[in-house]
Amino acid sequence: MPIHTFETDCPFTIGPFHIYPFPISHDAADPVGFSLRTDRHKVGMVTDLGSLTPSLDSLKECDLLILESNYDTEMLIHGPYPDHLKKRVSGSRGHLSNSDSVLLLQTLLHPKLKFVFLAHLSQKNNLPELAHQMAQDILKKEETATQLYLAWQNFISPIVTLS
């Protein structure tokens, strides 16, 4: 199978999918998030981002979102990581806290958003219940019908269908 490269901010198409790789803030070489669009739906995915940047507007109007909710701030502060790693994780080019993930989710809510998956949860600095509850509280506050799920590292997450 041939390998095809892409450039950040340069949309490309594979079959029915129009794919847009947009820049994100992480300590890697040219990190990106993705939005994928078909004639009927839009899906967005972003993990490994340390801060909320204007490029995340690329996730607006999605029917399904996969968002990082990496760590709970208190668990990270009091957790087992050495100080330099705590600073990296919580830095502007590290990972997204549950609190920042909820802020991002709140800006992306709209009536057509059907599903949200919280992803890239730290096994040492987060609890699935914490991440889920914080996001669920926002969904309830905004009175949305959006369904919330957790994406898991070691087993299959629920399968959903966009109709």
Question: SSE layout and pairings?
Answer:
Blueprint: E1 12-14, E2 17-23, E3 32-37, E4 42-46, E5 64-68, H1 73-78, H2 83-90, H3 98-108, E6 115-119, H4 128-141, E7 147-150
Parallel strand pairs: 4-5, 5-6, 6-7
Antiparallel strand pairs: 1-2, 2-3, 3-4
Explained architecture:
- It is a single chain.
- The protein is α/β, with parallel strands linked by helices and 163 residues long.
- It has a single domain (12-150), classed as Ribonuclease Z/Hydroxyacylglutathione hydrolase-like (Metallo-beta-lactamase, Chain A).
- Helices cover 24% and strands 21% of the residues.
- It has helices at 73-78, 83-90, 98-108, 128-141, and strands at residues 12-14, 17-23, 32-37, 42-46, 64-68, 115-119, 147-150.
- It has a 7-stranded mixed beta sheet, with helices on one face.
- The longest helix is centred in the last third of the chain and has 14 residues, at 128-141.
Quick tags:
single chain; alpha/beta; Metallo-beta-lactamase, Chain A; 21% strand
Q: Short summary of the structure?
A:
With 163 residues, the protein is an alpha/beta fold.
Helical coverage, percent range? 10-25%
Content of β-strand: 15-25%
pLDDT averaged over residues: 96
Can you tell me the residue ranges where pLDDT is under 50 for at least 5 consecutive residues? none
Number of strands: 7
What spatial form do the alpha-carbon principal axes imply?
globular
Work out the helix count.
4
**CATH homologous superfamily title:** Ribonuclease Z/Hydroxyacylglutathione hydrolase-like
Radius of gyration: 16 Å
**Order of strands in the sheet with the most strands?**
1-2-3-4-5-6-7
- Label the structural class: alpha/beta
Under the CATH scheme, which class?
Alpha Beta
Number of spatially distinct domains: 1
Topology as a string of helices (H) and strands (E): EEEEEHHHEHE
Could you tell me the CATH topology label: Metallo-beta-lactamase, Chain A
The CATH architecture assignment turns out to be 4-Layer Sandwich
Largest sheet: 7 strands, mixed
For the terminal residues, how far apart are their CA atoms? 31 Å
